[in-house]
Amino acid sequence: MSNRTDARGRRPGGPDTRGDILRAARESFASNGFSGTSMRGVARGAGVDAALVHHYFDSKDALFVEAMALPVDPRQVAATVLDGPREEIGVRIVTVFLGVWESPDGQQRMKAFLRSVVSSDQVAQLMRDGISRLILAPVSEVIGGNDARLRVSLVASQLIGMALTRYLLELEPLASAPVQTLIDRIAPVLQQYLTD
After folding, report:
1. Please, what is the angle between helix 179-195 and helix 148-163, to 10°?
2. Which Pfam families does the protein's record reference (predicted)?
3. Does residue 15 sit in the same domain as residue 103?
4. What is the CATH number of the domain that holds 159?
5. Distance (Å, whole) CA 30 – CA 34
6. Domain limits at 157?
7. I need a surface site. Which of 51, 53, 67, 136 has the fewest CB within 10 A?
8. 84 and 164 part of one domain
């Protein structure tokens, strides 16, 4: 006995349907951003009926949050950045940041993340809250001082600007510069923000 999804050529749920939906969602968010991605489009990409996407994820926001799970835990990032001599924190920050971006899976997820943040106020607020709580607050606490949050935010602005220019705009020569060159050039700037 066939059902409607079979008649339309869509497959019913299977052993890795949820994984297929998440992969299709990651691809769509990376290519189209948050506003350009639809639940129906993700369903098409995964080869399933849209109702099945709604079965696993009750909203596009919920799908985004799970699909865009960062390749590293932000709490581990903060711990890595803070583990070591204070005078080397700039090097650790940019090394960890570029390490995430330079991995193929990390780059796809981070591109989707940036595109979605700039196209949706709701996603921007969600990410802002998460980043503030999981990374900016602990680093600011260790850095100390009245303007610690401002200095850590300046670091974030440098990293986000570099990511937009290198990975989204692909502006040369930054786009093809060796990672070690970027670390050597950016780390002292970040260090100055954090230790002055």
Report:
1. 160
2. TetR_C_16 (PF17920), TetR_N (PF00440)
3. no
4. 1.10.357.10
5. 9
6. 74-195
7. 51
8. yes
